[in-house]
Amino acid sequence: MVQPTDKKLDQEVFSEATHLYKAGQYVEAASRYKELAEKDYLDAQVFLGWMYSEGIGYAQSRDSALFWFKKAAALNSAEGMFYCGRLLEEDGQSEDAFEYIRLSAGKGYPPALCRLGLMYLIGRGVAANNDYAMQYLRRAADQGNVFAKRELAVVQMKHALNLLTWTQGGLRFIAAIIESFLIAWRDPYSEKIRC
Fold first, then answer.
1. Helix H segments across 58-186?
2. Which of 117, 178, 169 is nearest to 143 (CA)?
3. By its UniProt entry, which Pfam families does this protein fall under (predicted)?
4. Which CATH architecture has domain 1-75?
């Protein structure tokens, strides 16, 4: 009889944890995710960090969330880098947040491309730079990120030189809002609705 590999067993445990989570058995799911996270299973580290940040399955702990996000980021996880940056940004550590978001965007992670564009647009953690902002927002929008599409529409409306351009921006804005609702309805965890 052939023994399953550790990787296959880990995938089975991850699937089991996900099933438990979807069934509302958060404590049990968190336990399985933690078992995998301690074995450097990246998806489990990111999900465990998210569970700690939201207080699902464990008491809410931003320190524990940051620990798991940083651990995943150190293992080259674009999602880990993104969520680490988001948490640091929420905590007012904009410069550190920018670095994690920048690294994640460098891997082409669409939510990070969107967030980096916004950070450049408003000058959070970095000097404002409209050219970089538009570059990153367009890259995110090209990959289907609706928040980037929405922000590009807002910029178009703000800088419209005539009614036609403003109207086009307004229509793009409405389309992005509708698209975000449709995506959230089908898949509330979609990368297309994260920024």
1. 62-74, 78-90, 94-106, 110-122, 130-142, 146-158, 163-186
2. 117
3. Sel1
4. Alpha Horseshoe (1.25)
- Determine the pLDDT at residue 8: 81
What is residue 68's three-state secondary structure? Answer: helix
Torsion of CA 20, 24, 28, 30, to 10 degrees: 90
Token pair for 16 = 């089991």
Q: Which residues of the chain have pLDDT under 70?
A: 1-5
Are the C-beta atoms of 112 and 101 separated by less than 8 Å? yes
Query: How many other C-beta atoms are found inside a 10 Å radius of the C-beta of residue 19?
Result: 13
> Which residue in 135, 160, 145, 161 sits closest to 195, CA to CA?
145
Cα separations (Å) of 144 from 7, 132, 182, 192, 195?
A: 31, 19, 13, 6, 12
Whole-angstrom distance, CA of residue 186 vs CA of residue 87: 26
| Per-residue pLDDT tens over the stretch 15-62 | 999 999 999 999 999 999 999 999 999 999 999 999 999 999 999 999
Ramachandran area for residue 62 (φ above 0: left; ψ -120 to 50: alpha; else beta): alpha
